[in-house]
Amino acid sequence: MVRSLPFVVVSLLLAGPACSKKADQEAPSNKAAEPAGTPAAAEAPAPAADGSPCNAVPASMVSEVLGLPGFAVKNTETQGPVTVCQYERSEKPRSVTLRIETGSGAWDMYKEQVKDYELKDIPGLGDKAYRYTMGGSGDNVGNNVVVLKGQRILQLSQLGGDPAKLAELGRRIAAVL
Asked: How do beta strands 82-88 and 95-102 pair?
C-alpha cells in the first residue's frame, strides 16, 4: 500500500474529476526555476500575461509558509480549465502539487472521489474547504487540502509534512488567486 501511495496521489491530481473538460489543445509546459531561499514578497505577484495561475504562487511562498526551504518550480501545465503546478526540493518532504480547476461545478465530485477517507472541514478557508490524509505515516502519508473559492477549486497535495501548514498554504494561495 505504501509503495502505491505516490501513484494514487499523482493519479488523483492529474486525472481530476471525471467531469473535467479536456482542452482540444495542450498548452506548452512552462518550466521555470526560482532560486532557493529567495525571500517571499509581502504580496504574491498576479498571474503573468500567459494567464497561468501558477505565476501567482512562487516557490518562495511555498517554502516560506511550509517552513521548508529550497522549493523550486519543477513544472507547470495547463489543459483547458485545469492547471497543475509542481514544486520540488531535494530534502523530505520533497514535493508539493497544486491543482487548480477554474469554472468548475465539480466540488461534490471531488468529495465523492475521496469519500473513503476521513474528511475534515477547514472553517474560514475559501467558500468551503476540507483536508484528508492517505496512506502510511510520517513521510509516507499523503496530506491533501481542497478549497473552493468562487469558481476555482484548489487541491494541494504533499507526501509528509504538516497538514496544518498545508492548509495555511491553501489560505495564502486562495487569497492571491
From this structure: antiparallel
- pLDDT value of residue 62: 97
Q: How high is the pLDDT of residue 29?
A: 38
Domain, as residue range, for 48: 5-20+41-176
CATH number at residue 90: 3.40.1000
29 in a structural domain: no
Query: What sign results for the dihedral spanned by CA atoms 71, 43, 85, 159?
Result: positive
168 or 29, greater pLDDT? 168
For residue 26, tell me if it sits in a domain.
no
CB 146, CB 134: distance < 8 Å: no
